[in-house]
Design a protein that fits this description.
175 residues; alpha/beta; 7 strands
């Protein structure tokens, strides 16, 4: 077949990728070296804060590359309605939640093989998300997830106590 016979497929502009990916598809980058010397093993850019919609695609993609995933640990304050476990691809995946606020998700394969992924906020721009994901998988990267998100402009500024929308937080100045 000659090059002229190949139909031109529409190409997505980088800015449209996040919106164009169908729900349940994981936007994921993994470190390509086997050494695992860096702090992070990859990066994930979910489309929303709905863990029930986002996690199955991530676990399916990771299972293809890493093998069966047993457990996921993530920041409780970053997600809506965290269940204790989900059934994904006919396997139970346990979910541990902690109020760490560090921009990571911990993936456990088997009993103790732990992988740490940067989580790019769904609201990040395509440019900042791409930069954060690239930096997370660079060989020898020693920056922590929170620092990468700040450096690349992927993370919104932390709200002041007066603006903090989380339940149980009193605005400053109230009694």
């Amino acid at each position: 077949m000659a090059d002229s016979d190949i139909p031109d497929l529409p190409k997505l502009l980088p800015e449209a990728v996040h919106r164009a990916v169908r729900p349940g598809t994981a936007l994921l980058r993994l470190e390509t070296t086997r050494s695992r010397e860096g702090i992070l093993d990859g990066a994930w850019w979910p489309r929303s804060r709905d863990i029930g919609a986002e996690l199955p695609g991530l676990i399916t993609a990771l299972t293809e590359h890493l093998g069966p995933i047993a457990r996921v640990g993530l920041d409780a304050s970053a997600w809506e309605d965290l269940p204790k476990r989900l059934v994904i691809d006919d396997r139970i995946v346990h979910i541990d939640s902690f109020p760490v606020g560090d921009g990571t998700i911990l993936i456990t394969r088997g009993d103790r093989d732990l992988f740490s992924l940067l989580v790019v906020p769904p609201t990040a721009t395509p440019e900042s998300a791409r930069a954060a994901m690239t930096r997370a998988v660079e060989a020898g990267n020693v920056a922590r997830a929170g620092q990468i998100l700040l450096d690349t402009g992927s993370s919104p500024p932390c709200p002041s106590p007066a603006e903090d929308p989380r339940p149980g937080r009193e605005p400053s100045g109230s009694a």
